[in-house]
Amino acid sequence: MVRDIRERSGRRRGRRADRQEGGARLPSGRRCAGRGPGPDGAGPTPCAAWRAPRIPADLARPWVVAAALALLGLAGCAGPPPAEPPLSYPPSVRERMLRIAVSEWIEWGRQRADAAAPDEAGKETAGDGAAMRSAESAPLHFPRLVAYWRAVPEDEGAVARNRERYRAALAAERGLLLPAGGAAAPPRSDPSRPWAEPPWSAAFISFVMRTAGVDRREFPPAAAHATYIDALIADAEAFPALAPFLPHAPEAYAPRPGDLVCADRSPSPLRHWRDRAGDQGRFRPMHCDIVVGAAPGAVEAIGGNVRDAVTLTRFPTDARGVLLPRPPGAPVWFAVFENRLGRLPPWGPDRPAAVAGHDRPAAPLPTGSPAS
């Protein structure tokens, strides 16, 4: 009996020593003796190097382990959410877009420009003093430009600044004195007059698209042409069969009504829309117009902030209807965005008969020129 007690006591002391020295049982069931050096004295034995994992009691419950494994499985399968594909729009949206552009042009006084004329090389103006006309600064046009800027998510403070300029212009029109501390109304040659800055041509394009019913997913409104151009290019590359606007090289595609013709206004202009990737999203001064008419030898397009107004410009084309290069000193064509609103399934040429029955021919636009 005494021997049994001594043996049991010895076994207990051995287990305590194992615990104190880090001993444990290996997965095979063999006991690991501790941290003793290996046979060559260089380090711990493989047995001593192994440690049994310690799992908190709460986490050792079967349902906790199962839930953790399930979460790990989901995490392994999860990735970035797929981009939402663009929607298809009926032809009426493209027609409405053209009507809105022409209507705005009419309300601005039907101003025309010929891009082939030598004095039309620098299309878009941005505040160059007395050489600029006063169309945008007339109080009559203040609400129009407010509407354009309100169509973009960030107006760069344009409305707030120009409200004060408009207030001064109204005071000058009425011959009234401004309140104490107010600034004098600027002369028409002063670049601080209403809407002399910032350039509003991209806001105009955004206004037309938004008013026509094109959602921001398909055409993100922006204060800069480069911003929405980047989005249209990305959409065309990700969804070539569904993108509502498809970029083409200007020398390889004849523009049609509804298309966007885009030029680079920078000192080192792009020559092809694919070259835009090298900018990595950086700002670049650009300008786009909406094509409203095409005829042999020319296309006509409407754009904002052209000669300080919404202006219809005539651009020469070759026998194929392709845009000719601009004259020296003018912005350089780098892309024509084909407008496929109303031309994709189920609205395109292969649309079902039930949808085709709702289509109707577009009415001629009242531009009063052969190209319309």
From TrEMBL:
<dbReference type="Pfam" id="PF10030">
    <property type="entry name" value="DUF2272"/>
</dbReference>
<protein>
    <recommendedName>
        <fullName>DUF2272 domain-containing protein</fullName>
    </recommendedName>
</protein>
<feature type="domain" description="DUF2272">
    <location>
        <begin position="196"/>
        <end position="324"/>
    </location>
</feature>
<dbReference type="InterPro" id="IPR019262">
    <property type="entry name" value="DUF2272"/>
</dbReference>
<feature type="region of interest" description="Disordered">
    <location>
        <begin position="1"/>
        <end position="47"/>
    </location>
</feature>
<feature type="region of interest" description="Disordered">
    <location>
        <begin position="115"/>
        <end position="135"/>
    </location>
</feature>
<feature type="region of interest" description="Disordered">
    <location>
        <begin position="347"/>
        <end position="372"/>
    </location>
</feature>
